[in-house]
Amino acid sequence: MKLTISNEKFYDEVLLIIKLFFSEQEISELNLNYNISYSFVGSTLNAKLQVNGEFNNQTFTEELNNSFNFTKPQMLKADKYTKRHLKIMLYNFLSNLTGKQLPWGSLTGIRPTKLFYELKQELGSSILAKNELIKTFKVSREKAETAWEVTKNQTKIEINDNLVDLYLNIPFCTSKCYYCSFISVPIAQCMQYVEPYVNALIKELKAVKEIINKKNYIVKTIYIGGGTPTALSAEQLDKILSELTYPVSEFTVEAGRPDTITQEKLDVLKKHKVTRISINPQTFSNKTLREIGRAHTAEDVITSYNLAKPYGFSINMDLIAGLSNESFNTFKKSLTKTLELKPDNITVHTLSVKRTSKLSEGEGEKGSEPEVVKMVDYAYKTLTQNGYNPYYLYKQKNMVGNLENIGYSVKGKECLFNIDSMEEVATVVAVGANAITKRFYSLQNRIERNANVKNLDDYINRIDEIIAKKQEFFK
Question: Does some domain include residue 320?
Answer without folding.
Answer: yes
